[in-house]
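Dear support,

I submitted the protein below through the web form. The confirmation email said the job was done, but the results page showed an empty box. After a refresh the structure appeared. I'm attaching both so you can tell me whether what I see now is the final result or a partial one.
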Amino acid sequence: MILLKLAELLKLDFHGNPNCEINGVCSLKKPLSGKILYISSHKLISNEIYSADAFLIDKKLQKYFPNQNLLLSSNPQLSFTELTKVFLCPKSDLRFDKDKQAFIGKNVTFGLNIEIGKGTVIEDNVIIGNNVKISHNVTICSRVIIGDNVIIGPGTVIGSEGFGNVFTGKNWEHITHLGSVEIMNNSCIGANCTIDRGTIDNTVISSGVIIDNQVHIAHNVFIGSNTAIAAKVGIAGSCNIGKRNMIGGMVGIVDHINTADDVTVSATSTVNTNLNEPGVYTGIMPISKHFRWKRIALWITKLDKITKFLKLKKI
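What the results page shows now:
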């Protein structure tokens, strides 16, 4: 779609070559030719971004882009939600495969020695490697990439729509997620897990990762190799989890968190800050190194006695 048509469709002003061909949206991590890139702040401007052919920006930022192709908006975050809808892929036209007892989309690539359970749905343009075991009633959404020697438990959904929304002041507008999910070799995913696709780039599960049942991994998350995640963990969007992490049951990790390699998070902890060093972490208010948390917990259990002592001392 040319820039002029895109501007007309989104009811935006434009600057630059009206015939610039735009065939999708790209991210700050991977600015690409033929794509449009949303820039929300002048702080994000660098020499690397100019690999993109066009930019969606706030009108106030136009002075930073004197020679680029632009879509200009007074509310670029809301305009971005509309932009993502333009490039949404059509829904899969599924057919029932009697041999596999599953619903299969178009252009699906299967490796050797594949097991697929009954009631599974595999949408368009999915790539599945060798020696993959997919259990019953699994849903694999469009463009998901699955490596070799991967196991997926029953009821799991891979590539579901991420939870990205913009509040207009009156209602929520959903950001259509254009990325997908990549699951690398030798990974194992349990039953009834949900792995959301990325907003633009893929959500990535690296090689050797093992995931227990009922785990939710949100959009744009990167899980480092050989990480183990126990049941009922929730990892919010855009987190970067290091290699060989061990995440205990019912841990909640808020969005945009980074963890170092060789981090262990104790069960039921809430992670609301980056964990920049290897080690064991435990905590609810707030998370800290495990040895420090044990001292804090000791004092918390004695707070009532301390309070009584202070009151008596004051008398």
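Response: this is the final, complete result; the empty box was a page-load delay. The chain has a mean pLDDT of 93.
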